[in-house]
Amino acid sequence: MAEPEPPLSCDCFVSLPPGSQDDHVIFGKNSDRPRDEVQEVLYYPATSHPSGTMLECTYIQIPQAEHTHAMVLSRPSWLWGAEMGANDKGVCIGNEAVWTREAIDPGEALLGMDLVRLGLERADSAWGAVSVITGLLEQHGQGGPCREDPAPFSYHNSFLLVDRNEAWILETAGKLWVAQKVTEGVKNISNALTIGTDISAEHPELRSVAQAQGWWSGEGEFCFNEVFKSETPPARMELAKKRYSGGTQLLQQHDGSVTAEVMMSILRDKPSGICMDSGGFRTTGSMVSILPRDPSLPCIHFLTATPDPSRSVFKPFVFSESVIPVSRVISPQYGPDDPVRKQPRFQSQVDRRHDLYKAHEGALQTMETNPDAGNALTETLRMLEGQCLTDISALLSGESPVEEELGDLFFDCVDTELKFYQ
Question: Which family does it belong to (predicted)?
């Protein structure tokens, strides 16, 4: 049997004023993964940890921080980290697969998805998250299988890190890294290196390593993506470049008028490939966040918890003291019997589908076999999403909701969506 093509990773987007219609920073991400992989949405409250506590990540243990922020994560249910998420300090992070000239360590270390979660746990700003992730890279490295499959598949990572005031693009090659600060307008990344000569921060040995390897003469301007680009990229990297270009065009079409609704429409765009459904891979989870510049207003995070955003509902989540964890978007847990935990890993698979995933799966089948019923269901789901957006608009206009209502938002939307599927 032919080996399935590697995923094209994902697409991350950000709009900062004046790119946004309002005085908001808008973050968006599609997570493109093996098509049957389940993403769950998890809430973790802020927590204090005893000094000396060790933290079990996907493959390795590292020292735990003494305090971790509250987080909401969209994550492949077999691993510890996350494809994307936000914390209660107004920080959002998403990651991408990239391939560079630096060799991929065959051993198990921190996944890029682990680094997403660790950045959210430990940082109260986008730059703080850059510092957290690069520090952990230096100590522990990155590596290990990136999908739930015995066939080896690993990559390096780039990240989009966003807060209420600015964004950072972080691109890595092993333990080396480079970062670019973005303070206005629209920007996107896909799974290719995008930082050239506009470098805001970098690993102190980045250029000396490039010289020692014979990748850069040391003369003239240093261009990261030219010096570190892979000489043997995956076959589908050319398609990834088209996705990046297509995503840039979609963003630029709306430059000056980007809203959460616009970002959702970009994530749903199939002709560009941003909303992916190709062979063994598809968009398995999506996220859009509104980060108001005004610190008195709450940040709003929309997550699908289901694949294919063109046929999913973006459901709002707001951090509050009364957040209700939603068990129906949490996958079954298998503890030490999980095939991911056993050595050798990935020798079997278990059913990781949560209740919403299973209901959505049935709805997708209806959409495909009965187009009229499918169109009616899609219209109903869009009405639910539209009502959520209307309520959020009122909230951002200054209406003061009851604290309990904020904590119930995501729970209520999931509950309503499930009823529509019945």
Answer: Belongs to the peptidase C69 family. Secernin subfamily.
